[in-house]
């Protein structure tokens, strides 16, 4: 079930369709980042891989930084197969089932976790439109609690308690801000 029609698709046409899709996706990403030419993108190392192990990084994204490891090809293959089986189930009936919506893009009950749940949205809207301090407190409490769960990367961090550094030993703000770059144009938009 769900197999490609061998007469219609050859290995070459599958690879060509894949490359076309990836190229369109890359162009969209580059345009949104202000990258005007492929030359300014190649080798720029403007991304960091999150959630991929060294096997995938070395094979597909050579030289890309990845401080947070993650899944490998085995998990990618299992997830692809799982999604394929959901989209093309073996069935006795000819009626298509309703595909599940896991809530990846929009909030769904029992779906992917999102910061902007209906409750959070209602509380922040009530606080903003009516000045309801209790609604804001509920919103702030929920958002602060989210940082301790897996919805955000920062929620997975654990900090070690240390003695504080004397203020005299901290680099002054006047020195720190000298390293800030505040150009009016993005580097991507002026690259050639």
From TrEMBL:
<protein>
    <submittedName>
        <fullName>Glutamate synthase subunit alpha</fullName>
    </submittedName>
</protein>
<feature type="domain" description="Glutamate synthase central-N">
    <location>
        <begin position="10"/>
        <end position="53"/>
    </location>
</feature>
<dbReference type="Pfam" id="PF01645">
    <property type="entry name" value="Glu_synthase"/>
</dbReference>
<dbReference type="GO" id="GO:0015930">
    <property type="term" value="F:glutamate synthase activity"/>
</dbReference>
<dbReference type="Pfam" id="PF04898">
    <property type="entry name" value="Glu_syn_central"/>
</dbReference>
<comment type="similarity">
    <text>Belongs to the glutamate synthase family.</text>
</comment>
<dbReference type="InterPro" id="IPR051394">
    <property type="entry name" value="Glutamate_Synthase"/>
</dbReference>
<dbReference type="GO" id="GO:0006537">
    <property type="term" value="P:glutamate biosynthetic process"/>
</dbReference>
<dbReference type="InterPro" id="IPR006982">
    <property type="entry name" value="Glu_synth_centr_N"/>
</dbReference>
<feature type="domain" description="Glutamate synthase">
    <location>
        <begin position="117"/>
        <end position="191"/>
    </location>
</feature>
<dbReference type="InterPro" id="IPR002932">
    <property type="entry name" value="Glu_synthdom"/>
</dbReference>
<dbReference type="InterPro" id="IPR013785">
    <property type="entry name" value="Aldolase_TIM"/>
</dbReference>
């Amino acid at each position: 079930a769900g197999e490609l029609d061998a007469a219609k698709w050859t290995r070459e046409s599958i690879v060509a369709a894949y490359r076309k899709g990836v190229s369109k996706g890359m162009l969209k990403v580059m345009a949104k980042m202000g990258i005007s030419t492929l030359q300014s993108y190649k080798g720029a190392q403007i991304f960091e891989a999150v959630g991929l192990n060294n096997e995938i990084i070395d094979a597909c994204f050579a030289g890309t930084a990845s401080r947070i490891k993650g899944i490998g090809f085995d998990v990618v293959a299992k997830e692809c197969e799982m999604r394929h089986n959901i989209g093309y189930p073996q069935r006795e009936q000819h009626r298509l089932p309703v595909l599940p919506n896991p809530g990846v893009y929009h909030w769904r009950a029992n779906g992917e976790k999102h910061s902007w749940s209906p409750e959070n949205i209602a509380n922040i809207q009530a606080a903003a439109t009516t000045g309801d301090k209790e609604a804001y407190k509920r919103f702030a409490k929920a958002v602060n609690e989210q940082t301790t769960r897996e919805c955000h990367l920062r929620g997975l961090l654990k900090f070690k308690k240390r003695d504080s550094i004397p203020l005299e030993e901290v680099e002054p703000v006047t020195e720190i801000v000298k390293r800030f770059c505040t150009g009016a144009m993005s580097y991507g938009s002026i690259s050639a």
